[in-house]
Amino acid sequence: MSNAIMPIYAPAPVSPVRGEGAWLIESDGTRWLDCIGGVATTALGHCHPALVGALTDQAAQLWHVSNALRIPGQQALAAKLTAACFADVAFFCNSGTEAVEAAIKTARRYHSTRGAPERIDVIGFHGSFHGRTYAAINAAGNAAYLEGLGPALPGYLHLAIDDHDGLAAAAARGTTAAVIVEPVQGEGGARALVDADLVRIRRVCDANGILLIHDEVQSGMGRTGRLFAHQWVEGASPDIMAIAKALGGGFPVGACLATHAAASGMTVAAHGSTFGGNPLAMAVAGAAFDVISDPETLAHARAVAIRLRDGLGDLVGDVVTEVRGKGLLIGLKLAPNNRAFIAAARDHHLLLSGCGDNCARILPPLTLGFDEADIIVDRVAATIACHAFAEAA
């Protein structure tokens, strides 16, 4: 039978049919330790009972009505999210890239409704990733994602994170609307921004009357051991934030959060979504929020991250040259090709994700056991020790 799927992906030769916590199981019983996690999405592991229960209960009641009607679950989840961070209001969508799209629109409309429609420029940073919609790939500025899609959109500028003078000059221009930044870059190489840079960016925005957007699609919802990564840094809170991935624990849902002031331009008909905030998504995301935001869950995530990172740190040498990231968003900077390393790890039934700067990412669930953290370290060590990499080193 011919393959009827558009050939966009190059999936690994693994075909799971069910999951249990940090493990994926194929039809023949083969078990894989999953450190891809749906790319930082299944933050509570596979088939967490609270999420299964919420989805099952809601599925028997109501799936979809669209935003032409009130959806009580939206108000409930919005209240939980805004009470837990800087924000006052939420817009619900289906993915991280849609959340970024909403954030950019929110920022530009903020200035337009204040009499400055010329303020459209969005400043981003090298190594960033904000999703695959056209605005999102332009915000990140990765040439590979723009190839073959026509000219780059106007209104986007990209700087090195340590280009202090460049940021100050760009922010001072009368056409700048916002700065967008990931507190921890995921796709770009699992780089955690230093606290001083996050604070500096916040101050530059304040000094120039522009809005700060945080993309916490990957770093948010407990991934770093706090509910949101920027909450590790005093004085770095954004005006607008895009979240998704772990927000639904595997069910497609995203959100754009903002202060009342930043969202002042988002009036009736300024934006919308057919499926965003549907009853199924709100039920599952509400249950996921309750578990992830529990202090015990976050404390465990911090503790198991220390155990895992310490073990991986002991493996640094000729093959793994650096352990990057924050919390359970971990990057292994590699000397050999990262795709070859990831393929070799599968020989040890360990599933890793690739990312930029020749890194392999480790993205286990926040509920990972300490014994499972040790198994990850053992399997990474076995991958390093395999003949091909021993020769390469």
Could you explain how this protein is built, in words?
The structure is a single chain. The mean pLDDT is 96. A hairpin with a 3-residue loop joins strand 16 and strand 17. The chain is of the alpha/beta class and 393 residues long. Helix 7 (164-172) runs parallel beside helix 8. It is globular. It starts with 15 loop residues before the first strand and ends with a helix. It contains 13 helices and 17 strands. It has helices at residues 37-40, 49-59, 72-83, 96-112, 134-140, 143-146, 164-172, 195-208, 279-292, 295-313, 338-346, 370-385, 387-392, and strands at 16-20, 23-26, 31-34, 89-93, 121-125, 156-159, 176-181, 184-185, 191-192, 211-215, 240-243, 254-258, 320-326, 329-334, 350-351, 353-355, 359-362. Strands 4-12-11-10-7-5-6 form a 7-stranded mixed sheet, sandwiched between helices. A 4-stranded mixed sheet has the order 1-2-3-15. The chain has 2 domains: 16-47 and 296-392, Aspartate Aminotransferase, domain 1 (Alpha-Beta Complex), CATH 3.90.1150; 50-292, Type I PLP-dependent aspartate aminotransferase-like (Major domain) (Aspartate Aminotransferase, domain 2, 3-Layer(aba) Sandwich), CATH 3.40.640.10. The longest helix is centred in the C-terminal third of the chain and has 19 residues, at 295-313.
CATH topology (fold) name of the largest domain:
Aspartate Aminotransferase, domain 2
Percent helix: 25-40%
**How many strands?**
17
- Major sheet size, sense and barrel closure: 7 strands, mixed
CA radius of gyration:
21 Å
CATH architecture of the largest domain: 3-Layer(aba) Sandwich
Q: What is the element string, with H for helices and E for strands?
A: EEEHHHEHEHHEHEEEHEEEHHEEHEEEHH
| CATH class category name of the largest domain | Alpha Beta
The named CATH superfamily of the largest domain: Type I PLP-dependent aspartate aminotransferase-like (Major domain)
- The largest beta-sheet arranges its strands as 4-12-11-10-7-5-6
Distance between the termini: 43 Å
Poorly predicted residue ranges: none
Mean pLDDT: 96
Counting structural domains, the number is 2
Structural class: alpha/beta
- The fraction of residues assigned to DSSP E strands is 15-25%
Shape descriptor: globular
**With helices defined by DSSP (H or I, 4 residues minimum), what is the helix count?**
13
